[in-house]
Amino acid sequence: MASTTVTRRALLLTSRARHFSSTAARPAAEVKRLGVVGAGQMGLGIALVAAQKAGVPVILVDNSQQSLDKGLAFADKLLSKDVTKQRISQEQADAARALLKPTTSIEDLCNADFVIEAVPEIPQLKFDIFAKLAEICPKHAILATNTSSISITRIAASTTGGNSTDRSNSSRVVATHFMNPVPVQKGVEIISGLQTSSETVETAIEFCRKLGKVPSVSADRPGFLANRILMPYINEAIICLETGIGDRDAIDAIMKNGTNVPMGPLQLADFIGLDTCLAIMKVLHEETGDSKYRPSVLLRNMVAAGWLGKKSGKGFYDY
Length: 319
Ligand code: NAD
Hints:
Blueprint: H1 2-13, H2 15-20, E1 34-37, H3 41-54, E2 58-61, H4 65-84, H5 90-98, E3 100-103, E4 114-117, H6 123-136, E5 142-145, H7 152-157, E6 173-178, E7 187-192, H8 198-210, E8 214-218, H9 226-242, H10 248-259, H11 265-272, H12 274-288, H13 297-304
Parallel strand pairs: 1-2, 1-4, 2-3, 4-5, 5-6, 7-8
Antiparallel strand pairs: 6-7
Helix pairs in contact: 3-4, 4-5, 9-11, 9-12, 12-13
Bound molecules: nicotinamide-adenine-dinucleotide.
């Protein structure tokens, strides 16, 4: 019943795209080979879950060999933890690990059926990568982004090579916005741009379900659903710290113990990455023009100092 509701909502949200599209809705396409661009915390998590749950080979692309090495070492750690806790057998862990195919060459995505981009939240970087993906991936491949806040319509527009009437590439662009940490969180937002076809949305929903995720469909508006709600909460917690309403521990303790969440907003911001939080707040602020989304000065300063949270070793906490 729930899945039917998601599908109906998806088709409703993409009805505008279908109106422009010459192809009627078709069933979801099968994904036999996945590509992931960016082996950071999100990309690595998506790749690992796909290998474990869908059992598909994953071509994991990163332009930094160091990031690939770090990511795969983390995958090994997560898999051996699963084995130790008897959640999976050693054979299952080995099988999943063998499906991860690291590479620094994006051209290796030339036979992927579905690609998920998870590079940093920098618009031009994503536009350049999607223009490249449209060029090198097979014409049937779905091109998905894990963006937290950048417009899917704009990302899709970067695949047209300047010819906005040609929707052969832009219709296969969609967002699959996974939540962090990917192996743990079940939620995923599916967001279609103006150009996205209903078949693309169907395939994205089906593939995310194969990964054991629960898709929520949202519209292409700044912050979509999850970050439209979560980021102002985190930003407000940072303002509370900045203005001395409470110290770090008081802020995190009251929200953790008062709202029954596993961690307080400042610790959560460290886990997400303060650069990512700032990038999302900037999009919300700039795209809506609403001052309620102004990023806090302390958040800006911490990012300027290179204090990005867990990934850099220092944020609101030391790691
Ligand atoms: P991250 O900084 O941990 O990882 C990004 C990776 O991309 C790095 O390994 C980097 O080397 C690689 N990269 C950079 N440029 C590249 C290029 N040109 N080609 C290939 N690889 C490249 O970032 P992250 O936290 O994993 O976030 C990735 C995306 O996921 C962002 O769009 C972010 O907004 C989104 N997201 C993040 C979270 C979160 O909690 N961190 C949650 C949901 C969505």
